[in-house]
Amino acid sequence: MAILDGIESPGDLKKLNIEELKQLAEEIREYMIDVLSNIGGHIAPNLGIVELTLALHYVFNSPEDKIIWDVGHQSYPHKIITGRKNLLPTIRQFGGISGFTKRDESPHDIFGAGHASTSLSAALGLATARDLLGQNFHVIAVIGDGALTGGMALEALNNIGQLKKDMIVILNDNDMSIAENVGAVSSHLSKLVSLPLYFKFKEHLWELLDKLPSETLSKKAKILTKKLKEGLKNLAIPTIVFEEFGFEYIGPLDGHDIKLLIDTLDKVKEAKGPILIHILTKKGKGYKPAEEKTELFHGLGPFNKETGEPIKKPGPPRYTKVFGDAVVELAKRDEKVVAITAAMPLGTGLDKFREEFPDRFFDVGIAEQHAVTFAGGLSLLGIKPFVAIYSTFLQRAYDQIIHDVALQKLPVKFFIDRGGLVGEDGPTHHGAFDLSYLRLIPNMVIMAPKDADEFRNMIYTAYKYNKGPIALRYPRDRVPKEPDGTEFKEIAIGSWEMLKEGGDAIILAVGTMVLPSLRVSLELEKEGISIGVVNARFVKPMDVEMLRSIAEKYNNIITIEENTKVGGFGAGVLENLAEMGYKGRVKLIGIPDTFIEHGNRKKLLEVVGLDEQGIKKQVLDFIG
After folding, report:
1. How far apart are CA 552 and CA 555, in angstroms?
2. SS3 sequence, 63-109?
3. Catalytic positions, please?
4. In percent, how much of the chain has pLDDT > 90?
5. Distance CA 534, CA 416 (A)
6. What's the distance, Cα to Cα, between the start and end of the chain in Å?
């Protein structure tokens, strides 16, 4: 019988010895590879975190002790151990468990996550609340070296050092280049500082020095002690930054040595003040394809377990690839074109640009705020920055878009991938709000394409536009058909496209909703119902002249967008119609005012009524 079969809760781990825990780690890896090869998911991050997860749940008592996972895409082993083992085959599937930590899914998921760099702030909040309420539990935050590049994490580090609450931060570093730099000396010092005796000694050291007979001698002894400490510290290990923040630094440790992890956690869990344990892990550990292609296996769909090759479905390319190819094409013509991403070169389609123009490619890490203002600075001297960031992550740079770019009318080009419902990653990743949060910003231009050819032309239009910021949002989906390969064409800013006139009503559709609306219109035509369709490709500025002519002709206007109905395109149409004194009826169709769960994108569109049948039903209900 496999050890994993007997694990139903963290308490079951405490019955195991070290050798059994090692065996369990391998069984968990095998189980994850078996399941995820069929459904996809975040493979590499979860393979690399198994031993740490076991050690944390072995030493601490979740959920009484609070374990907070940054981002949450490395929480699969945590879910397996905390009673959701049999639900793993449903992960990221409609109606199944989330691919991230989710508070209403389990009491062991202390803090919901999906975006990076949040764990330290949340952990400090928990530790502070614990002390205010006089409670007694441990707080542990697990953060990756990538998430530590986020400004929010650095802000939290600063505040932790100021408040000095009892808490443990585990830095999961899967950049193995550091291992050669620190070596055996560092490992020795790490074991030294993890001993309880060290903490006891350090706690009383300054008190003892104060009792020296001479105040001058006492001060000199303190200075000498500090210099000795810093000399040892800087000799071998990169502790200075964290210790300046007010942490006790321990590490780097082998993040796959489960005995070392358990011993260290057990020895430091009662220490006072903030502790930072730096561990080294291998992303994709135990599965060769994931170890060799960590960027690909960070998150992908189904794959062949034996070869590691993704299982590709036939069809036209994704919008992301069309974008990546078009940017390379423009960069070949114009050396002022540069590309910026926030730790997502492959996810945004800029991997090809990175290879061809390494000097003009900038991956700023998980730092969306910096990315936007950095682009603004580049644009001041005529550089043409193409900023590619997922819709949900661009939310994190909202003030910079307003203050550093739009207010100054800087010609930054925003390419907003994953606009609308993204699918399996769920509510933390759905790009359901960008049309709303960008539409209210002065000087901003917002476009959304109906197909690949229009998409390419919009990319070119953004390239040519220099009067201020311009944004182009597109879905996590395939284009309807291959681009025809014709030369780029510039589109007049603010122009809509009349695709079909109607008699009973007219649909103003945006982006992904244009072609489904057109198909619904053609289907209703067979039933004797005449519905017009407009490609409202500019959300801002709107084609006010066309809208005015539509208002004069139609008594029934329908807007359709893959964005929240609150403050989105439809709301903008209503604002304009109100100013025109429109007396007809208006129906807004879009994502409802709620967070939408995870699941296949096609299924989610059906759930919110944005598939063809849903659109047809809502149109018929409206016109009676």
Report:
1. 8
2. CCCEEEECCCCCCHHHHHHHHHHHHHHHCCCCCCCCCCCCCCCCCCC
3. 283, 368, 396
4. 75
5. 23
6. 63
Q: How far apart are CA 274 and CA 102, in angstroms?
A: 26
Q: Please, are residues 477 and 319 in contact by the beta-carbon 8 Å criterion? A: yes
> Within its chain, how far is the Cα of 419 from the centroid?
13
Q: In what order do the strands lie in the sheet with 556-564?
A: 497-500, 531-535, 505-509, 556-564, 585-591
Strand 384-390 versus strand 445-447 pairing type: unpaired
Nearest to 369 by CA among 174, 122, 154: 154
Tokens of 406: 């739009």
* pLDDT at residue 299, as a whole number: 81
pLDDT band at 206 (very low <50, low <70, confident <90, very high): very low
Considering only CA atoms, give the Rg of the chain.
Answer: 28
* Rounded Cα–Cα distance for residues 486 and 66 (Å): 57
Q: Which of 466, 467, 460, 515 is nearest to 491 (CA)?
A: 460
The mean per-residue pLDDT over the stretch 580-594 comes to: 97
Place of tokens 């062949």: 304
Cα-based angle 100, 106, 108 (whole degrees, multiple of 5): 85
218 Cβ neighbours under 8 A, 6+ residues apart: 209, 210, 211, 212
Comparing C-alpha atoms, which of 261, 256, 252, 253 is closest to residue 28?
A: 256
The continuous run of DSSP H or E covering 464 comes out as helix 452-464
Q: How far apart are CA 169 and CA 191, in angstroms?
A: 17
User: Which H or E run contains 561?
Assistant: strand 556-564
Q: In the predicted model, is pLDDT for residue 14 greater than 60?
A: yes
- Write the burial class of residue 484 (CB in 10 Å: 0-12 exposed, 13-18 middle, 19+ buried): exposed
Cα distance between residue 185 and residue 189, in whole Å:
6
Alpha-carbon 168 to chain mean position: 24
Strand partners, 587: 558
DSSP secondary structure code for residue 478 in this structure: B
Give the tens place of pLDDT for each residue, 352-387: 999 999 999 999 989 999 999 999 999 999 999 999
Alpha-carbon distance of 101 to 36, in angstroms, equals 17
Percent of the chain with pLDDT over 70: 89
Structure tokens at 142: 């697990």
Cis link prior to 252 (omega < 30° from 0)? yes
Structure tokens at 467: 């009067």
- Strands of 95-213, DSSP E: 139-144, 167-173
Q: pLDDT tens for residues 506-529? A: 999 999 999 999 999 999 999 999
What is the pLDDT, as a whole number, of residue 225?
Answer: 54
Instruction: Identify residue 412 by its one-letter amino acid code.
Output: V
HSE of 51 in the Cβ direction (CA atoms, 13 Å)?
Answer: 26
CA angle 52, 278, 61 (to 5 degrees): 40
